[in-house]
TrEMBL record:
The keyword Metal-binding does not apply. InterPro entries: AB_hydrolase_fold, Pept_S33_TAP-like_C, Serine_prot/Carboxylest_S33. SUPFAM superfamilies: alpha/beta-Hydrolases. It comes from Hypocrea virens (strain Gv29-8 / FGSC 10586). This is Peptidase S33 tripeptidyl aminopeptidase-like C-terminal domain-containing protein. GO terms for molecular function: hydrolase activity. It holds the Pfam family Abhydrolase_4.
Length: 624
């Protein structure tokens, strides 16, 4: 998750969605087109700007959106018998951008999904409508990053939502109301190139994927006939043989279908897609699974944190087991992990009486509270392999009075540095890839039940419930939905389920039956996930007939970078190949333990190490 400017905390960014520098590629060099046209970008990638209808629910509405697409070509040409089409991916969010994710993680993903010599895929992603380089863009603070930053600092001042004897809630509601008004003003003034915020709900994004799948099929058909024309050697029989060999080795779905792997919020998108367009399902893998019933109905986002505090306990017990040579918080003479844990909580309660005064590297003044530490701990639980050892060290230093590392990570992940704002975000057009919380709100408020104008008492109960579920993350997590209290856009397309699919069905010669998925969905989950618990994966799998579930014995959000193993990767690659899911719950052991210093973390390098890539950042100022 990454949070946000206080408009909303963006809960479910599964994977780091850090920014690339927009100087790497200028999207305005591509003219948007209705048919798919790829252009070189980011060295090894191809980019396109596809025009799609703004409002699929209104045939007479002429307005359009432009979707920024990116693909990593397959390692074989399209006419190679082992070429097996596109696999789409979404990194999480809502509001997360696919382009930056692909640039960093596309190659690693392709390596996992390919079956050398047998199946090679192109990997494809996109900035969802309203997000990143897509256009129009949901942005309520165009050319005004300073105002954006000021809100974040203001939102800190009141303390966590469960503090102040209940006074924090009405304060935040008042702030959100002003933010909501600013967003409406932005839409009405047309400053973002047209209206978008009411048209960003997940059904629209799922429908955009149908559009992309169809445009890819059209382009491939055009290319294939051009190739055939150019390479025709006068031998029809040889040509037919070639075609036959190729078909035999490829997924031949008839109607164009989606092959997809989604993480975190990407599992919401995949679930909506499958439930709305079951006849377009080729293969779908959902990793770090959101309970889409909770996401779309009721108070919303209240089942995410059931395992969060237990993972925090694992942080302390793992630290104790690893010992002081590896975990800086451990001591030689500790008798049990509760010694580590109680030292930490004692220090936390002292912080409440005496918060830390700090000055950031660029001179911003900040007070570090116990709530900040809880949020940092909650953040560390997302990617234990990357964070546990370094976070333990930063904490240990802070507990000994040296708060430099904690302050640095607070600024990296959660706070703006107003000194920077004049140099950034000066453009109104596409080309800025950074995460914006109003992009998240546009999606999640449209998808969830309407909570517009609910009173402070209702929200206090909501916050209490969240804090009851997780003392570490509950107050913070409540920010996600509270943004919807003043999100006054009427969504064009709402879908409340049922989130289910007919069973996968084939004709005698192997082609999937129209209206049915080509394969059941494969769900993937860590044993303990801080924001998308295993119980949600089980519930979602139970709603889709024939679905499979792979559980990896790891901690962290989503399996990428937390629960990787040859076992897991082969379940996924085999599924894309055959469409077969394991029966029952398949188990895999991760290659690496968070406390194992020997572990090769090379594959994790696709996401920046310095914290800017932490997907759970508050993401003001280009820090996702
Ligand atoms: C559909 O679009 C047309 C043209 O923009 C507009 O006049 C009409 O009000 C829209 N209908 C609905 C139901 O939004
Ligand atoms: C931002 O845009 C304004 C107006 O176009 C321009 O005057 C200013 O120089 C720009 N600032 C930066 C840092 O690019
Ligand atoms: C939170 O837990 C406390 C103690 O168990 C209980 O009294 C309270 O009703 C709970 N609040 C909510 C909103 O669930």
């Amino acid at each position: 998750m990454q949070v946000a400017i206080g408009i909303v905390l963006n809960g479910l960014i599964g994977l780091a969605a850090a920014s690339y520098s927009s100087s790497e590629f200028d999207w305005t060099t591509i003219s948007p087109s209705t048919d798919l046209e790829y252009h070189d970008c980011f060295d090894d990638f191809k980019c396109a700007r596809l025009i799609a209808p703004l409002d699929y629910k209104n045939d007479t509405d002429p307005r359009t959106v432009v979707i920024a697409m990116i693909k990593l070509p397959a390692v074989v040409p399209d006419d190679d018998p082992a070429f097996a089409g596109s696999i789409f991916t979404n990194p999480g969010g809502p509001g997360g951008a696919g382009v930056g994710f692909m640039v960093r993680a596309g190659k690693g993903l392709r390596n996992v999904l390919d079956k050398p010599g047998r199946r090679h895929y192109e990997i494809l992603s996109f900035d969802p409508r309203g997000v990143g380089n897509s256009w129009p863009r949901a942005n309520c603070f165009v050319r005004d990053t300073l105002a954006r930053n000021a809100i974040l600092l203001e939102l800190r001042g009141h303390g966590p939502l469960n503090s102040g004897g209940g006074s924090a809630v009405p304060y935040v509601l008042a702030l959100q109301k002003a933010i909501g008004r600013r967003c409406q003003d932005a839409e009405e003034s047309n400053i973002n190139g047209g209206q978008i915020m009411a048209y960003m709900g997940t059904p629209n994004v799922a429908r955009d994927m149908v559009q992309m799948v169809d445009k890819i099929a059209e382009l491939r058909a055009r290319d294939a006939s051009a190739r055939k024309y150019l390479s025709y050697n006068g031998n029809d029989q040889e040509d037919r043989l070639k075609l036959k060999r190729r078909k035999a080795s490829q997924v031949d779905y008839g109607v164009p279908r989606l092959q997809y792997i989604g993480y975190s919020y990407g599992t919401v998108l995949g679930n909506y897609f499958a439930s709305l367009f079951p006849g377009r399902v080729g293969r779908i893998v959902l990793d770090g699974v959101v309970d889409v019933n909770d996401y779309s109905s009721g108070p919303g986002w209240i089942t995410n944190l059931v395992d969060t505090d237990e993972i925090a306990d694992r942080f302390f017990s793992g630290c104790h087991e690893a010992g002081p040579k590896i975990c800086a918080l451990a001591r030689e003479n500790d008798e049990s992990s509760s010694s580590v844990k109680s030292r930490f909580y004692l220090w936390l309660s002292e912080l409440d009486k005496k918060p830390i005064s700090a000055i950031s590297p660029t001179g911003t003044i900040v007070v570090v509270s116990s709530q900040d530490i809880r949020e940092l701990l909650g953040s560390a639980l997302y990617k234990p392999r990357r964070s546990f050892i370094t976070f333990a060290k930063a904490l240990n230093n802070a507990m000994a009075g040296d708060t430099a590392a904690i302050v640095r990570s607070l600024f990296r992940r959660h706070l703006p540095q107003p000194k920077d704002v004049c140099a950034i975000h000066n453009s109104t057009g596409p080309g800025s890839e950074e995460y914006l919380p109003e992009g998240a709100a546009s999606v999640l408020c449209a998808d969830g039940d309407n909570v517009l104008g609910y009173d402070a008492a209702w929200w206090k109960r909501y916050v209490d419930y969240q804090v009851n579920t997780s003392s570490i993350f509950g107050a913070y997590w409540s920010n996600i939905r509270i943004a919807c209290n003043s999100w006054n856009f009427h969504p064009n397309w709402v879908f409340k389920g049922p989130f289910t699919t007919p069973s996968a069905k084939y004709l005698a010669f192997g082609e999937p039956v129209s209206g049915h998925p080509a394969a059941p969905i494969l769900f993937v989950s860590n044993r303990l996930d801080p924001v998308t618990p295993l119980i949600a994966a089980r519930a979602m799998a139970a709603q889709h007939p024939g679905a499979g579930l792979v559980v990896t014995e790891a901690l962290g959000h989503g399996t990428m970078g937390t629960g990787d193993s040859a076992c897991l990767h082969s379940y996924i690659a085999d599924y894309f190949d055959t469409g077969v899911v394991p029966s029952g719950e398949a188990l895999c052991k991760p290659d690496c333990d968070p406390w194992n210093k020997e572990c090769d973390t090379a594959e994790l390098e696709t996401t920046p190490q310095n914290g800017q890539g932490y997907s759970w950042d508050y993401t003001l100022s280009a820090r996702i």
